[in-house]
Amino acid sequence: MEIVEANEQHIAAIQQIYAYHVLHGTATFETEPPSEAEIAIRLNKLRAAGLPWFVAVDEGVVRGYCYLSYYRERYAYRFTLEHSVYIDTECRGRGIGTLLLSQAIVWAEARSFRQLVAVVGNSENSASLSLHRAAGFHITGTLNAVGFKHGRWLDTVIMQRTLGAGDMTLPEYIDSKTAL
Q1: Using CA of residue 162, residue 165, residue 167, residue 173, what is the dihedral sign?
Q2: Exposed, middle or buried, 116 (CB in 10 Å: 0-12/13-18/19+)?
Q3: Distance between CA atoms of residues 158 and 139, nearest Å
Q4: pLDDT the model gives residue 179
Q5: Taking the C-alpha atoms of 143, 146, 147 and 153 in order, what is their torsion angle to the nearest 10 degrees?
Q6: Could you say which residues of the chain have pLDDT below 70?
Q7: How deeply is 6 buried, as exposed, middle or buried, from its count of CB atoms within 10 A (0-12, 13-18, 19+)?
Q8: How far apart are CA 175 and CA 146, in angstroms?
Q9: Cα separations in angstroms, 150 against 108, 117, 180
Q10: Three-state SS string across the chain, please?
Q11: Is the pTM of this model over 0.85?
Q12: Can you give the pLDDT at residue 171?
């Protein structure tokens, strides 16, 4: 298993993995699978922001992916990231999510980000909750019945993990936009 940064050759596989979760799962609240063209737009948007999209490749086949995005666009959130991770359903339970999430955490800590947020679709998503707990995340809250998909109400569980020094120290740089 190799973890690499996604590129154009991975888009079709990413789209297929995600489409399955959109159509059959509750981890995402999207209800229509995005096209390959839309996945390419999303990949390029992250790359333009300097953020990674990792894929797990096994014998030349993409088995899962994880990407990092800014938690919110407002400047004050600039040290906090959110991530998404999706695994090919035929490959669950093989540690692929752990490998991908670990790579994302290493990447974020090396760049002095301080918090990583997970928004877990569906409070019954025990696999995702377990993955995140094992990676050092803790539940900070649950938004009850905020989504409706597959004929039922769904929660989102907010989880958070401190990166590096977290809030124990000030950022390494202070600029004119930062209020002391």
Answers
A1: negative
A2: buried
A3: 6
A4: 46
A5: 90
A6: 173-180
A7: buried
A8: 37
A9: 34, 26, 47
A10: CEEEECCHHHHHHHHHHHHHHHHHCCCCCCCCCCCHHHHHHHHHHHHHCCCCEEEEEECCEEEEEEEEEECCCCHHHCCEEEEEEEECHHHCCCCHHHHHHHHHHHHHHHCCCCEEEEEEECCCCHHHHHHHHHCCCEEEEEEEEEEEECCEEEEEEEEEEECCCCCCCCCCCCCCCCCC
A11: yes
A12: 83
Tell me what pLDDT residue 175 has: 60
Q: At what angle do helices 36-48 and 11-24 cross, to 10 degrees?
A: 110
Check: CB of residue 65 under 8 Å from CB of residue 54: yes
Residue whose pair of structure tokens reads 């120290």 in the numeric block: 169
CB atoms inside a 10 Å sphere around CB 49 = 10
For residue 172, the model assigns a pLDDT of 73
Per this entry, what is the length of the chain?
180
Q: What is the pLDDT of residue 160?
A: 98
Long-range contacts of 173-177, Cβ-Cβ distance < 8 Å, separation of 24 or more: 177/75
Unique residue bearing structure tokens 């202070």:
174
Identify the pLDDT of residue 37: 98
Tokens (6 digits) for 136: 């050092």
